[in-house]
Write a structure and sequence with these properties.
The structure is a single chain. The protein is of the alpha+beta class and 245 residues long. The chain contains six helices and 16 strands. Keywords: Iron, Metal-binding, Oxidoreductase. InterPro entries: DUF2086, Oxoglu/Fe-dep_dioxygenase_dom. GO terms for molecular function: metal ion binding; oxidoreductase activity.
């Protein structure tokens, strides 16, 4: 898989995101179910997001994973209005991903076609009662981990999502690899460990994706998680495009 590299010298998040090789990213998503955008955020931007974690007033909910059997660690969902950086990332990434998801739905004979503008898709979510924002910050300490899971919050779900690593592997923490699994029919699960560096984003299939077979395309289920943190603390930002019930 070839990771895409953009330019931190670009003036805005939207310009920076547009500078990635989205044709290559789409090929990666088709072939592997994920793609990596190297250096999407600067070290300063990662630090600014980490510093938000203790500002409870900007979040709508805090989840302690161990209480729900999700793993160990915790995360917080942002409330509306989203902060400028998270909001810009969500808005700017979406138009590059909607064509991929529409092509996937066509391959799987799913009727849903996603609007090419995030605001139009969120209007569909809100009309269905899904009005709670889903972008989040995650924090892990030593021996914390995130079980393999899918992020599904209602009738309207967007097939792709993003996770941005905000900590430095090997310096701020050890362990804590981002893991994807793929379950093909009548086959054992296949795991993929995605190496990330500070500021890298992984975009991945959150629920399922199409795979070509002898009789056309078939659906494979996808799950994602984080392996055990061995030392230190690991922070990440999650960008989910559909809102929750």
């Amino acid at each position: 898989m070839t990771s895409s590299t953009g330019g931190l010298g670009c003036d805005t998040i939207e310009q920076r995101i547009s500078g990635f090789d989205w044709l290559q990213a789409a090929e990666d998503l088709d072939a592997y179910g994920y793609t990596v955008l190297k250096g999407l955020l600067s070290p300063r931007e990662c630090k600014l997001l980490i510093e938000l974690y203790d500002r409870d007033e900007i979040f709508r909910n805090r989840v302690v994973m161990q209480r729900h059997g999700f793993g160990r660690g915790e995360y917080k969902y942002f409330g509306y209005p989203l902060g400028s950086l998270i909001g810009e990332l969500r808005t700017a990434l979406y138009p590059h991903l909607a064509p991929v998801t529409n092509r996937w739905n066509q391959a799987l004979r799913i009727d849903m076609r996603y609007p090419l503008v995030l605001a139009d898709f969120l209007a569909l979510c809100h009309a269905a009662g899904q009005s709670r924002p889903t972008p989040l910050l995650l924090r892990y300490g030593q021996d914390d981990y995130n079980c393999l899971h899918q992020d599904v919050y209602g009738e309207h779900t967007f097939p792709l999502q993003a996770t941005i690593l905000l900590s430095r592997p090997g310096h701020d923490y050890t362990g804590g690899e981002f893991v994807l699994t793929e379950q093909r029919p009548r086959m054992q699960s296949r795991a993929e460990v995605v190496p990330l560096q500070l500021g890298d984003a992984v975009i991945f299939a959150g629920r399922h994706r199409p795979i070509p077979g002898k009789r056309g395309f078939y659906r494979v289920n996808m799950r994602h998680g984080v392996s055990r943190i061995r030392t230190g603390h690991r922070y990440a930002a999650g960008i989910i495009f559909h809102d929750a019930l």
